[in-house]
Amino acid sequence: MARSRRAGAVARAVGAAHRAVFGLPPGGQPYEVTHGVAVPTRDGAQLLADLYRPVGEAHGTVLIRTPYGRGLPESLFHGRAFAERGYQVVLQSVRGTHGSTGEFQPIAQEAADGQDTVAWLRKQPWFTGRLASAGGSYLGWAQWSLLQDPPPELSAAVVMVGPHDFGRAIRGTGSIALADFLGWSTTMRAQGRGLRALLAARRRLAASLREPTPEAATATALGPQRTWFSDWLAHSDLEDPFWTPYEASAALSATRIPVLLIGGWHDVFLDQTLEQYDRLDADVALTIGPWTHLETALKAARTADPETLAWFDEHVAGAGSRRPFPVRVHVTGAAEWRTLPTWPPKTHAHTLGLTGNGQLVDETGWGSAEFRYDPVDPTPSLGGRHMSAGAGRRDNRPLESRDDVLTFTSAPLASELEVLGAPAVELHLTTSTAASLFVRLCDVDPRGRSWNVTEAFTRLAPTSGPVMLPLGSCAHRFLPGHRLRLQISGGAYPRFARNPEPCEYTIACEHSHLTLPVGGGVDASA
């Protein structure tokens, strides 16, 4: 049964501390919280929600749909914080999670349940007719699912690290993103069963990633029964109709409301965030910080939460000032924020050749380079753009010391070099079998530490010829005295499933090069 109560002195004190720590604008409007409101769906499921309502007039309603529970941090950061500023908040547990009935069928279930929730909202006497949505990761996906058929009441959205195409995120490289999605599935199946169950799930996951095949890893982590991850593993072709409910690209053409996109340079879904910015035909703004996927939950809040409130003040309440710039990105290497009129900005191409003795040079390369991949000892993943623990910026020297990793390194830079956009690599490559290819750009500091900047992974048929591989976009400044390093290997396990076959790689360096989108002359702003 739903229970309502007005926020008391403790809640107000917590709210004041939250505002001070995270730099939020003044709030303090009294509000009430109603826990456990049941929202019916068309098939009879009951989706539980907590309702945060300011006392008095509200600007509008913010809908947040999550599989991760209605407690901290969501209850404080977006329930209480938004209510203090005059917004009603419906914080809802998706089907099959945290008291909501029905079977949890991740990702595929959200389009219908989102529409049913909006239909319920329309019948509530307190609903003002102005709706917004917010949330990150899976919560962002829930928004794109709804936006495939946008409700007319929807006035604005803030999507943080939220993919619109989960099939591509899971299998888009040609190999399943094993550690991320087996890890997520293992955690979700243990959710709500207590700390002991969660710790046991983590032990099973660690053991599973030592198995030789994805199928064996799945059985160790999740047991012999069929699961959603088993289905993801069994459907390798993204053209298969199985993946249709995992894809919400229609939302990018259907959306006309103002959308703020927030991403991280080390986030697994960054490429999709940038695609959303490029494809949306709407009032769209973009903020990209130096964060990993997991860091967007807390570390990014000091940036993301004030921007979210400002976006809603402007587009829902009609009381805020217009965002003065469409794009705001953090330039890594320089540790500064930059405002831009668009992304990517204007740049010029700077091409570096590869040499057989491991150099990056400002001329055509020469010679050849070889390495061998062994599935018994697969090239490990280290840092980078994924959503598991250990993501982000890491010193790559342990990885680069392996015999199955090639590196090509420039001379120390005489002046700074700023890369703004997506670098690209062309390799004239010969492989002995079907192969995996992992390519990474690193920044080598004067102490010799090699810090990853951007990367890409793909699966290849047996190859003899040119291979074009765009790397992920970045905004990075290589400082004077630093060196650029291109890293090439045959895998990144367990981030991606290992290639089961040994493979010999030969790169004809005279036909291979790295192309950088280089900018300059743009003033930074704090």
Secondary structure blueprint with pairings:
Blueprint: E1 3-6, H1 9-22, E2 31-40, E3 46-54, E4 60-66, H2 74-83, E5 87-93, H3 110-122, E6 131-136, H4 138-147, E7 154-160, H5 166-171, H6 178-190, H7 195-208, H8 214-222, H9 228-234, H10 250-254, E8 259-266, H11 270-279, E9 284-292, H12 301-317, E10 327-331, E11 336-340, E12 348-354, E13 360-361, E14 368-373, H13 397-400, E15 405-409, E16 417-421, E17 424-431, E18 435-444, E19 450-460, E20 464-470, E21 474-478, E22 483-489, E23 503-508, E24 513-519
Parallel strand pairs: 4-5, 4-6, 6-7, 7-8, 8-9, 9-10
Antiparallel strand pairs: 1-2, 2-3, 3-5, 10-11, 12-13, 12-24, 14-23, 15-22, 16-21, 16-24, 17-20, 17-23, 17-24, 18-19, 18-22
Throw out a few tags for this protein.
single chain; 526 residues; alpha+beta; eleven-stranded mixed sheet; nine-stranded antiparallel sheet; 25% helix; 31% strand
